[in-house]
Specification:
- By secondary structure, the chain is an alpha/beta fold.
- The protein has 2 domains: 147 residues, Rossmann fold (3-Layer(aba) Sandwich); 95 residues, Hypothetical Protein, Haloacid Dehalogenase-like Hydrolase, Chain: A, domain 2 (2-Layer Sandwich).
- Helix content is 30%, strand content 22%.
- An 8-stranded mixed β-sheet has the order 5-4-3-2-1-11-12-13.
- Helix 1 runs parallel beside helix 9.
- The longest helix has 14 residues.
- It comes from Metabacillus sediminilitoris.
- GO terms for molecular function: magnesium ion binding; phosphatase activity.
- This is Cof-type HAD-IIB family hydrolase.
Length: 257
């Protein structure tokens, strides 16, 4: 069997709705490794947000921040931070709109405000607490992703930022990335390092930030719980995460015997 690389999203793909790893998913990932395949993560999360998960699953390669920070075997191979002058301007505009932001580096995240219900609810859905306040964190560190907290459709007020891409991930929060950023771009960097053909790249995902990834790879798999737009472009739709979706998917695709 040709060597493959399989990328997994985290929330709604590796983790179920309780933010737990189903036992069948652990088994599936180990089976892939036992068959000589590379297993990697492709997520919108920052590296510090899934460090425990990487240790638990013994995974050392990942695409984080939706493609802006890529690591191969624990070595950083690609970085695409947001420009500081853009973040300065974004902060001023968000202040006028009364929308809080969270700036995210590879090590930590800081909020532009103290306690805020939108931040508490959306970050709480990932089982994270409200970040500390440091309005000028972007001046101190490279920022690879910013979170904008606003109600649905309010992010349209930010469309004049042609150098930015906005992707909603929660009813109260939207990811802000460089306009050319995506999981697909991060995967290209890892594939280049692995010297692996696109046809041997697989990816599993469920959300809007997985669209480019599922479209780019040789075989794109949508979880049964995925958004409809992802299912429409996927090569294959597996069962939902809480119905052994990953194990079922790798078996149906004959990635393991």
């Amino acid at each position: 069997m040709d060597e493959k690389v399989i990328f997994f999203d985290i929330d709604g793909t590796i983790l179920d709705h309780n933010k737990e790893i189903p036992s069948s998913t652990r088994d599936a990932i180990q089976m892939l490794k036992d068959h000589g395949h590379h297993v990697a993560i492709a997520t919108g999360r920052a590296p510090f947000m899934f460090e425990d998960l990487r240790k638990e699953l013994d995974i050392h390669s990942y695409v984080s921040f939706n493609g802006q920070y890529v690591v191969f075997e624990d070595e950083v191979i690609f970085e695409n931070p947001l420009k500081k002058e853009t973040l300065e301007n974004l902060l001023q505009f968000a202040d006028k709109e009364n929308h809080p932001l969270v700036f995210m580096s590879e090590e930590d995240m800081m909020s532009t405000t103290g306690e805020h219900p939108f931040i508490e609810q959306s970050m709480g859905s990932l089982k994270f607490t409200h970040p500390k306040e440091n309005r000028h964190y972007y001046r101190e560190k490279n920022i690879y992703q910013t979170l904008l907290f606003c109600e649905s459709a309010e992010e349209e007020r930010y469309q004049h930022y042609s150098e930015l891409k906005l992707i909603r991930w929660h009813e109260l929060s939207t990811d802000i990335l460089p306009v050319n950023g995506s999981k697909a771009e991060g995967i290209k960097q890892l594939a280049k390092r692995l010297n692996i053909d696109r046809e041997n790249i697989y990816a599993f995902g469920d959300g809007l930030n997985d669209l480019e990834m599922i479209e780019y790879v040789g075989t794109g798999v949508a979880m049964g719980n995925a958004v409809q737009s992802l299912k429409e472009i996927a090569d294959y739709i597996t069962k939902p995460v809480n119905e052994d979706g990953i194990l079922y998917g790798i078996q149906q695709l004959e990635l393991v015997k």
